[in-house]
Write the structure tokens for this entry.
Amino acid sequence: MAHPQLRTETASDTGLIAAWQAGDEQAAAELVGRHARALARYLSGAGAPDAEVDDLVQETFIRAFRGVARFRGQCQFRTWLLTIGGNVLKDYGRRAGRRKVLPLDESVHDVTGDPHEHAVATEVEARLTAGLQVLPRLQREVFLLRAQQGLDYEEIAAALRTTPGAARVHYHHAVRRLKEMIG
Amino acid sequence: MNDDTKLEHFAKRLGAAAAERLDVDATARNVVAALRRQPARRRTWIAVHWMRVAAAVVVLLGGGLLVRQTVTVPVDSEHPDHLVADDLGDLTTEQLKDVLERFDEIVGSSTALPDSSDLRELDAQQLRDVLRSLEG
């Protein structure tokens, strides 16, 4: 198979989606190139096992492209993609029959610097990861979309089919509970 | 660093390793290949939804017809339409005669018809007068 040649950054996501719908496979490859890392971060943060992240990213993109007719610009393509990723992860959890809390990948941690700070960071991140797993799904997704992906409440609300006010409430509930868990 | 800032700081770091480790080009190739292997699913999805729309239309039309047949009061065909005409002046002489004849059949011959009550001998104005007297 030919190596997908990425285009320039000038094409909008919407334009690439239209191109994909018209049969342009390279448009799909370009969209994957743009959003795959953000999706991987999101899935990992939401509890995807490290060994499964690649497959879950692929599954999310495949599901998104097959259902792209349902995307009508209600939010950014990436935001919509992340919500599909949440569904894919949920389905994975059902298949796996468990919601696994995973140890953070070692490469997350900055191994240089003060060993004490490193140990503290590791512990905090582990607690945060564990805390996210026990949050209700909506709180977890709102928290990640807001704190990890940097989205505003309007964007989050559009993606999750709720209101900005409700998204804000979910976020604050999540923050309160996570702070209690992190200590 | 306060608690909120610390939380956001660590939230931003979550998944960073997984993102770095991801082979984006390979992912793109695999996704495109998977989509190529099963391209018909898009068309299938569209076809399924069109079928659903068509089925919904059939159900709505069928239901509508059923409801209409169930609740519609049958119109008594013996009553000429002229009886509901608001303005008798709109009716022709023949129509007025028809109305009176039908009306006479319904209410009997106790109406205030002229003495020599052969309707065919009345002109349009007389027929209107008769009808108006019947309307009260």
Observations:
- Chain B has a mean pLDDT of 76.
- Chain B touches chain A at residues 3-4, 6-8, 10-25, 27-36, 41-42, 45-46 (CB under 8 Å).
